[in-house]
Amino acid sequence: MPPKTVLITGCSEGGIGDALCKEFFRQGLRVFATARNTAKMENLKALGIETIPLDVVDKASVSEAVEAVQVATGGGKGRWTTLSTTRGYSMPLLDANIDVARDMFDVNVFAVISAPWPFQGFYNASKAVVNLLTDQLRVELEPLHVKVILVVTGTVRTQFFQNLPETRLPPGSVYAPAHEEVGYMLSGKRSQSAAMDVHDYARKVAQNVLKLRPTVNQWIGGSVSAVWAVSTFLWHTAWLNPKGRYYIPASQTEQAGQS
Ligand SMILES: NC(=O)c1ccc[n+]([C@@H]2O[C@H](COP(=O)([O-])OP(=O)(O)OC[C@H]3O[C@@H](n4cnc5c(N)ncnc54)[C@H](OP(=O)(O)O)[C@@H]3O)[C@@H](O)[C@H]2O)c1
């Protein structure tokens, strides 16, 4: 019997996709690693993993990648599993660059068909949409015998925050008086302090995916148990602190309100 096949998106070196490729390969699966720039997957190629260029928001690139996998697997008669890892954007909503946010929605949401961290409004929104769409996909693909798994990821130690498009408040931001606290949030230093090792993460995700009856909503990563407990047992607004944790002097907020 040919080995099971998995295609993984977003496999640039050092990220979750990269670690997942290595883990599935180690477990004997045929792995197609994909990224926009194949030069970022040289480490995987050196291990013998097949690499294919794929930009998930570029239709031509998607068709070419699908065709490449079909050819490589003998006409695509076999089944493959697809795992998507995508991108982030950390910025207060008021300061967000809409073009960057729209681009992220294209990658995170439209290409794929929560923890509410402050100042990641667009990112959290894109993940919430993915959450809902995954439930929908699960129902719609069930008659085709396709299993859909949602991995709700807590913090994982990767270059995620270093790869974000921008994490500095723009000039004139209303949050400027609290730039130290807000900048700390945007840099990810706070959330990354409890982050899970990326290889432990990949091993547990792969273990679940390869089960006969996988957990369909897998919560995994740093701080995720607390997020799961609050989201599951407490009321929706339990997350929200109306006073806010970021001190901005009253004079500054008045100024911001007038402008
Ligand atoms: N690390 C964490 O703490 C954490 C926590 C919760 C959720 N997650 C989620 O886990 C996923 C992976 O994150 P990570 O930590 O591995 O970060 P990462 O290293 O920055 O990985 C992001 C990957 O997405 C790829 N990507 C971006 N745009 C793409 C496009 N248009 N087509 C194809 N690939 C594209 C990037 O490729 P390029 O190199 O070409 O840009 C990169 O390989 C993300 O969805 C993230 O939201 C991570």
UniProtKB/TrEMBL annotation:
Keyword Oxidoreductase among UniProt keywords: yes
SUPFAM superfamilies: NAD(P)-binding Rossmann-fold domains (SSF51735)
InterPro entries: NAD(P)-bd_dom_sf (IPR036291), SDR_fam (IPR002347)
Keyword presence, Oxidoreductase: yes
Gene3D superfamilies referenced in this protein's UniProt entry, alphabetically: NAD(P)-binding Rossmann-like Domain
Pfam families: adh_short (PF00106)
Keywords from the UniProt entry: Oxidoreductase
Family, per entry: Belongs to the short-chain dehydrogenases/reductases (SDR) family.
Name used for this protein in its record: NAD(P)-binding protein
Origin species: Aspergillus pseudoustus
